[in-house]
Amino acid sequence: xxxxxxxxxxxxxxxxxxxxxxxxxxxxxxxxxxxxxxxxxxxxxxxxxxxxxxxxxxxxxxxxxxxxxxxxxxxxxxxxxxxxxxxxxxxxxxxxxxxxxxxxxxxxxxxxxxxxxxxxxxxxxxxxxxxxxxxxxxxxxxxxxxxxxxxxxxxxxxxxxxxxxxxxxxxxxxxxxxxxxxxxxxxxxxxxxxxxxxxxxxxxxxxxxxxxxxxxxxxxxxxxxxxxxxxxxxxxxxxxxxxxxxxxxxxxxxxxxxxxxxxxxxxxxxxxxxxxxxxxxxxxxxxxxxxxxxxxxxxxxxxxxxxxxxx
Length: 311
Ligand code: HEM
Ligand SMILES: *[C@@H]1O[C@H](CO)[C@@H](O)[C@H](O)[C@H]1NC(C)=O
Ligand SMILES: *[C@@H]1O[C@H](CO)[C@@H](O)[C@H](O)[C@H]1NC(C)=O
Hints:
By secondary structure, the chain is an all-alpha fold. It contains 14 helices and two strands; from the N terminus they run ααααααααβααβαααα.
């Protein structure tokens, strides 16, 4: 039991890229189309869909548990601290699920797989390189607010805590640095970067800090947004360049500079090698997407991503 808990979680060997090619050949193109439409309506949605998959996978595996609404009997993940007023995109996933149920003539594609595909399609729509998504995940029949509070890393963590957190999900320091590159997209609220802004001035670019001070005062305006890199709707390596220049928005982003040993300059490596980032980011997303999936007879294919199937 203890040994199993210490070992890496099962990185889903049963998943395959062509899982739906017989049962619903139009599923993937339908999802891609709807993700593209959602991003056209609101470019930030791509970022939000990538993060939704990350927060799903880090809480008991990539099992769609984040999508379950609270019930009288269950307090789920949506209102947990890292997710409440923060995770977005639930309505887009609902729209995709209904459309996919229609084109598949039934309930065939899991919510967990939709999250993995929507993340990939967002990355590609915003300029990243494509990768094959492994499929065949099934959906959880429960969700846990406590697990979401405990298992998702916080932006206030130092590097060792971030590394421990990733290791507990079977992910390495290298994976941490590559996957943090997800912050090439999207925004953070003031309450998550205020501490860095006012208490870490020695590692901040003064012009960058001055611009943010206006938007994120020492008190108030908790919900004011700033982008996580200079180009929040483009998948590129500006995120890593920003870290090197003292323009990391989150404490956790800046911490990536403090690696020790053989891997000590991964931030510089990705800043200098966009091609490597595009390649490695896709591979790392596949690895993250393989955290403890439910397969075989475990779990279910949810008809509606917000509720466990009835009966
Ligand atoms: C390394 C540990 C990580 C920490 C501490 C962290 C923390 C955060 C925080 C605090 C925000 C802002 C939330 C808000 O303002 O409400 C955020 C946004 C975001 N994160 Fe992370 N994150 C981490 C890793 C990742 C990973 C692995 C990915 C994806 C591969 C990712 C993708 C995103 C995206 C795309 C956004 C912007 C979402 C949007 O604009 O809607 N993050 N993250
Ligand atoms: C979620 O956020 C809302 C609005 O900020 C707040 O009123 C509510 O108490 C939060 N819920 C939990 C469970 O923290
Ligand atoms: C800055 O650090 C001090 C001392 O640790 C703490 O009391 C204060 O709340 C921090 N300020 C912000 C904005 O986080």
